[in-house]
Amino acid sequence: MEAVIFDLDGVLIDSEQVWDEVRQSFAASHGGVWTPEATRAMQGMSTPEWGAYLVEAVGVQLTPAEASAGVIAEMEKAYAAHLPVIPGAVDAVRAVAERFPVAIASSAPAVLIKVFLDVTGLPVPVAVSSEECAAGKPSPDVYLLAASRLGVVPTSCYAVEDSTNGLRAALAAGMTVLAVPNPHFPPAPDVLAQVRVLPSIADLPDALA
């Protein structure tokens, strides 16, 4: 194995609930009606994809670009007030980076990935947003691009994920997948059965030893 690629939301930042709250509030303020399936449907989508979903499925009375820009602006405000880094995540990434090249492959927009890296100061040389890809998770595109930028083949990478769509994306990329299941939005059991499950991100360095 030559590299470790991390998801961001739900793995390093406890942000899935923040995204959900911000999107729901934004949708309600712009004519949308939230649906029970909306939260899970958007997990893993790229920014253009979930912007379109808010308009087409939730009914937000804006263009997809306006909807996504508005939500991202609210997320930046939320992160400025409090960046919800998961306990043990920073130490885990630092420990892993001593042994492997590391990257982030996230559905988060690049501006929010940068906020995380600026605040934590983590040594992550490659950070890829699915904004740069043709499709978000569960498509493997963002993982394949991250591996390419690290200069390694996907099958020589570990991927660390928390959500159903993220796990599917990493598996489709051919990576060895470790799951740290999101307690708020647990992954599908049939997908978890295909990967190694860790109790917490703090357990990752020992799992890779």
Model description:
This protein is of the alpha/beta class. 45% of the residues lie in helices and 11% in strands. It has 10 helices and 6 strands; from the N terminus they run βαααααβαβαβαβαβα. The chain has helices at 16-29, 38-42, 47-56, 64-81, 89-97, 110-120, 141-150, 164-172, 189-192, 204-208, and strands at 3-6, 102-106, 126-129, 157-161, 176-179, 196-197. α9 links the parallel β5 and β6. α1 (16-29) crosses α4. The longest helix is centred in the middle third of the chain and has 18 residues, at 64-81. The chain is globular and about 50 Å long. It comes from Lentzea rhizosphaerae. Pfam families: Hydrolase (PF00702).
| Rg over CA atoms | 16 Å
Q: What strand line-up does the widest sheet have? A: 3-2-1-4-5-6
**Outline, from the CA principal axes?**
globular
Low-pLDDT runs of 5+ residues are none
Total DSSP helices = 10
Helical proportion, percent range: 40-55%
Average pLDDT number: 95
Provide the structure class.
Answer: alpha/beta
**Major β-sheet, in short?**
6 strands, parallel
How far the N terminus sits from the C terminus, by CA atoms, comes to 11 Å
Q: Spell out the helices and strands N to C.
A: EHHHHHEHEHEHEHEH
β-strand percent reads 5-15%
Number of strands: 6
Keywords:
single chain, 209 residues, alpha/beta, 6-stranded parallel beta sheet, 10 helices, 6 strands, 45% helix, globular
